[in-house]
From TrEMBL:
<dbReference type="Pfam" id="PF22725">
    <property type="entry name" value="GFO_IDH_MocA_C3"/>
</dbReference>
<dbReference type="InterPro" id="IPR051450">
    <property type="entry name" value="Gfo/Idh/MocA_Oxidoreductases"/>
</dbReference>
<dbReference type="InterPro" id="IPR055170">
    <property type="entry name" value="GFO_IDH_MocA-like_dom"/>
</dbReference>
<protein>
    <submittedName>
        <fullName>Gfo/Idh/MocA family oxidoreductase</fullName>
    </submittedName>
</protein>
<dbReference type="GO" id="GO:0000166">
    <property type="term" value="F:nucleotide binding"/>
</dbReference>
<feature type="domain" description="GFO/IDH/MocA-like oxidoreductase">
    <location>
        <begin position="156"/>
        <end position="216"/>
    </location>
</feature>
<dbReference type="Pfam" id="PF01408">
    <property type="entry name" value="GFO_IDH_MocA"/>
</dbReference>
<dbReference type="InterPro" id="IPR000683">
    <property type="entry name" value="Gfo/Idh/MocA-like_OxRdtase_N"/>
</dbReference>
<dbReference type="InterPro" id="IPR036291">
    <property type="entry name" value="NAD(P)-bd_dom_sf"/>
</dbReference>
<feature type="domain" description="Gfo/Idh/MocA-like oxidoreductase N-terminal">
    <location>
        <begin position="3"/>
        <end position="118"/>
    </location>
</feature>
Length: 321
């Protein structure tokens, strides 16, 4: 079992602590939180071993799970990597693209693996259809959340939209060509609602909307490609695949047939894969253990996360321009 430590015992940190303790892939060594008062409460309530010195925790572990605020990611991640420990770090990887590239270079130098917590890659609904998304040409995503003070230290693009940016980049095999975006601050000092139109060199267009001041929660994406429409509900963990194929000469009475102006007839049919329930956070952590043990590339690499951050920052830079 890999010895694991957690940096940060806030809301998400406590979830990671619980899952690492439950996992058969890891031995939870303990945790460190800069807020001593909070650390003592967590240690007392849940029985996890509290470290008062970060370096001591790092020294006792094979892997460190960083679940601290984004602004602190770079400095603590540097400590982990230079100590020769494998790094799991929550999204976004860092606050700036420059910081992310520096971490990537450090990880290569010290020969350690890094994985970033873009957890929607492990959403069972997305996993069920990701291999069916082939050369999408139009993508639409809505990620809406009720207001929560957590995460408002960064713009909504880095808090919420980056999930969809990463998912889009994972299925569009083309470079970003152009970005148009707008963002509005309503409650926070940084934008709370944003929309981005991302154009790729291959002609694909992704239209992404994110809000943290909505009346209800929604996390839906739709992928349109030649002869297929794929819908993913990340919140409800449901998916739908609608396909078209050339209509047979003699379709049955219940077949759904469309005919265009040129007389080409297509049959619509549903090809919905089974969604296998999972705990996405546990699966991403255990997939990292597999990458470490078997010397494989992590599912979400630091390079992929850095690119998602680069695109997210381009969205922010293009606000209302």
């Amino acid at each position: 079992m890999l010895k694991a430590g957690v940096l940060g015992a806030g809301h998400l940190g406590k979830i990671h602590l619980k899952l690492l303790q439950q996992s058969e892939e890891y031995e939870l060594v303990g945790f460190y939180d800069a807020n001593i008062e909070n650390a003592e409460i967590v240690a007392s309530k849940f029985g996890y071993k509290m470290f008062e010195n970060l370096d001591e925790l790092i020294a006792e572990c094979d892997m460190i799970d960083v679940v601290t605020p984004t602004l602190s990611h770079f400095e603590v991640a540097k400590k982990v990597i230079t100590a020769g420990k494998h790094l799991f770090i929550e999204k976004p990887i860092t606050n700036t693209y420059k910081e992310a590239t520096e971490l990537i270079e450090l990880a290569s130098k010290h020969r350690v693996k890094g994985q970033v917590g873009h957890v929607e890659r492990f959403n069972p609904a997305f996993q069920a259809v990701s291999n069916r998304i082939e050369n999408p040409m139009f993508i639409e995503a809505h990620r809406l959340a009720e207001f929560n003070p957590r995460g408002t230290d960064v713009p909504v693009v880095l808090d919420l939209m980056i999930h969809d940016i990463d998912a889009v980049l994972s299925v569009v095999q083309s470079k970003v060509k152009k970005i148009n975006a707008s963002g509005v601050s309503v409650i926070s000092e940084t934008p709370d609602i944003a929309n981005a139109r991302i154009e790729f060199e291959n002609g694909c267009v992704a239209n992404l909307t994110a809000s943290r001041i909505s009346m209800k929660n929604m996390r839906k994406s739709r992928f349109f490609q030649r002869d297929a429409y794929i819908s993913v509900d990340f919140l409800e963990k449901k998916c739908e695949v609608v396909k078209m194929k050339d209509a047979p000469e003699n379709p049955d009475d219940f077949a759904m047939i469309l005919q265009n102006a040129e007389g080409i007839r297509k049959q619509i049919y549903f090809d919905n894969p089974e969604v296998s329930p999972n705990n996405a956070i546990l699966q991403e952590l255990e997939s990292f253990a597999d990458a470490i043990r078997n010397d494989k590339e992590p599912v979400v690499t630091m390079e992929q996360a850095a690119e998602a951050l680069r695109v997210a920052n381009l969205v922010i830079e293009n606000f209302n321009v």
